[in-house]
Every structure is written in C-alpha cells, then in structure tokens.
User: Fold these one by one.
Assistant:
Number 1:
Amino acid sequence: MSLPCPAKILIAADIFGVTPELGQLARALGSSATLVSPHPFTRTFRCEAEGYAFFMEHGGVAAYAKHLGEVMAVRQCCFELALGFSAGASALWLCLADATLEPWLPSRTELYYGSRIRESAHMQPRRRALLTFAEKEASFDAVELAGRLRQAGHAARVLPGSAHGFMNPRSAGYDERLAAQEILRLQALLEVGPFAARNQR
C-alpha cells in the first residue's frame, strides 16, 4: 500500500540535470518537489551535446529509468504529479510500464519532448500520461509519433512552433512564451498560483 508523499511532485530533469531554473519551476508550481538528475552528481556542461554524450556513456535512458524507479520505491509513496523533460520524460515513460513499480507510480504524469519514447512507443503505461512533443525535432517526425501514440490510446500532442527543450532556459530551443503557457496550465492542474483560490471555496 502506498503512502502520501511529503513531496507532491517528482521532476525528472533533462540532460542539463538539476539546475536553479528547475528549482524555480518547482517553486512556481507551489509544492514541495523531489528533483532527480540523469547524472550521478552535480556538474555543469558547456552545451547540451556534451551533457548528452556523458549521459549515454553512463547507461542512457535505461539507467535513468532504473534510478527513478529506485527513488519512487525508496519513498514508498505516490507523488501527485510527475514531470519529465527530454531524457527525464523518456525514462519516466519506461517507469510507467514497469509492473514492479505499480504501488508507487505517480497519480498523474506530464512528459515533455521525450524523444526516446519513439523507441518504446509500443509499451503500455500503467498510469495515464500526457505526452507533449516539440514540433521541431532533428531525429524524428513528432507529428507522426504523436499520431501513432494516439491511435494506441495514449494522450499525445504536438505544440505548434515549438522546438526540443522549449521549457528549459538553458536549451537552444527555449521558448519563453510557450514555457509560461505550460507553467500556467500546470498551475491550473495543481490549483496553485493564480488558481489557488479554488481550494478556498
């Protein structure tokens, strides 16, 4: 039996790891959060490509998913919401399909531009997730992938005009307008920030 979590949100970081900007996002969502990095220690990368190369050398998405699963299992509680960005989204997708994590899977999951999901699109998650893809991806057709996932019964969308990394100020694809739009949507989902008054009615 799962227990309530002291931290309501689990955030699986992208290749840049746990950054001050990710902390700002957690604070904007008005809840305590557990931030998880794809790297075994805090480190700064000169660019996204350098971070990605390090990530792949140390196990890639499968290793990240294993680490996230351990974070969930050790706490033996269910997060209200899990957010995954890029590598974090792809790793969370694997976790959602893992039967051994059933008792600790988050109630809701939002996956942003998880490009490696294309390699495991056949998997059946045990919790419903919203998959948000960037329209501009260098290595695959996001519109085609989202369509295929929807045909399989998953909630998937592509944000027009968006590039990979649009939620992260450190990414070349960052889009301040789209990021603000999505943060507002997540705040509404959690009933925090400008939507906190709903909880007082």
Number 2:
Amino acid sequence: MIVVKVGGAEGIDYGAVARDAAQLWKEGVRLLLVHGGSAMTNQVAEALGHPPRFLTHPGGQVSRLTDPKTLDIFLMVYCGLVNKRLVERLQQEGVNAIGLSGVDGRLLEGRRKTAVKYVEDGKVKIHRGDYTGTVERVNRELLDLLLEKGYLPVITPPALSYEGEAINTDGDAVAALLAVSYGAEALVYLSNVPGLLARYPDEASLVREIPVDRVEDPEYLALAQGRMKRKVMGAVEAVRGGVGRVIFADGRVEAPIRRALAGEGTVVR
C-alpha cells in the first residue's frame, strides 16, 4: 500500500498526479489518495465575503479558525470542487475512483476540540466554538470493501466528531494515520516545493534525507519550525508506527509519485 497526500497549495499539477496514480493503479499498486484544498478555500472565502482567519498556537503551529460559515466553505471546496475534479481526472484515465470525505460512512472519526489556545499580541488566549479536531479512528472496513471491489478511494477532510459533527482536521495527519493503519510501504506528501528546504524558499537547499534516529539533531530541529514542525514530526511518528518511509516531494512535475518513490525529494526513513 502507498498513501499519497496531495497538498492544496497553488501550483500543484493535479493532472500529472492523476495520470501517475492511474498508471500505478493499472500496474497493480494499491493506493489511497488524500488531498487538501487550502488555496482554493481561501479564494472562495474571500469571494463570499468571509475572509480566512488563522490562529498561531503556543507551539508555533498555525491553523485555520473554523467557525460555522468557514466550515460550510470548507465542505463546498474540499468535498465538492477539489474532490470531484480529482475523481473526474482519474475516471478520464480509466480508473474507477470514488470520492469520500471523512464524514461518509464515519470514515474518519475524532475528537472535536472544545477550546483552542492561541497567541495574540504576545498573550495566550482561548478560542471556543471552533469546529476543529484530531482524527483518532479510521474505518478500514469501508476502505477494504472498496479496495477489494476495485475502487480507488480519494479521501478528504473533514472528519466526523464522536458526537456526529463535521470537524476540520489536518490532512497531513489523516494521511499519516491511514499509512500507519495499513503499514504502508510509503507515504508520499506532494506539495509546490521539491521537499523540505533548509532555507525556504531556496529550492537549492533541499534536504535529501532525515534519519528518524537523528531528528533531534540541531541540523534537523532547525527544519521543524512553524508549519514544518507538524510535517516533520508527523513523518517521524509514521515511520516509528510502521510505515516504510515518508517522502516529501514535488507535485508540480510529471510522474510526481514515481519520482518520489525513486528517491526524489526529502526521505524520512
């Protein structure tokens, strides 16, 4: 099993991703595709007069503030336009793909956060009423049923809370949980950069490999700042959880999955 997470930033070639995934699928490679949609969500939110807001948490991570209207926009973009266009592309390539959100069939379940800590003007504050959460369970029975019948699942947040509410959740974490659940051979993260960069946005500063047992070395800790912290530590946890390797790779190129599996990008093993 190979799990591929396609980011939602601008510049990613979804056509190339679909062509590559379809060819691998026809060659007998079992795949799960997970996707984001952050850039388009921002655009739609602006167009609808409800611009996105982001919270910076005490640990440095940044997350989208998800009020009820933002959740509606999130559902429109992720479960609608982005998901169905990717499924459409795969169908055009001759693969019987099926789009699923975490809400469908309780595919992804987790706990809604009752309160979120964030930093504003140097002070730690608490935001309540946010529709965000962390995925803790995967409905493998549903995925196995689809895979056995020859369907390629194309999966997107949101997840479902234990109380039955749709909750915004991190797509990278979803992909990692799926990869651990299946003991995947590889987990591939495709984005609009060639991998993890030591001096972002300098693409010449690509870090080729992060050994799990050295992730706390200063040279690697320097990578785990801001948005990258969650990605690096999530990759380490996935490898420690039984995933063969995690690759951060370029989603702007032709054959992006194959190139990642061949070692292009940043490999965590």
